[in-house]
Amino acid sequence: MSEDTISVIAIPDTTLVQKQIAPEIKELPIEELSENISGFLLKFGKVMDGIPDSIGDFKIDSMSVSLGVSVDGTVSIFGIGGSVGGQASITITLNKK
Prior knowledge:
three-stranded antiparallel sheet
């Protein structure tokens, strides 16, 4: 493993259908993954701008979002979109300023 890459280990969806566990390991460039996460968070920030500070009697102090990272480095809201293939999850907790 290079210092410029990070390992992503996932079980491709096709192996789950076949009921076999065959992990796939791929080295992703750190810069590419960083750009993909940053780009996603910038877009998601626009979504967050439209969320109210409170709902009924409840105040929203923080929100947790699980991101899926596919073996090709695609970042999406976990379980929605992204490319076909195995995914790993990153949970990010956002707190109000």
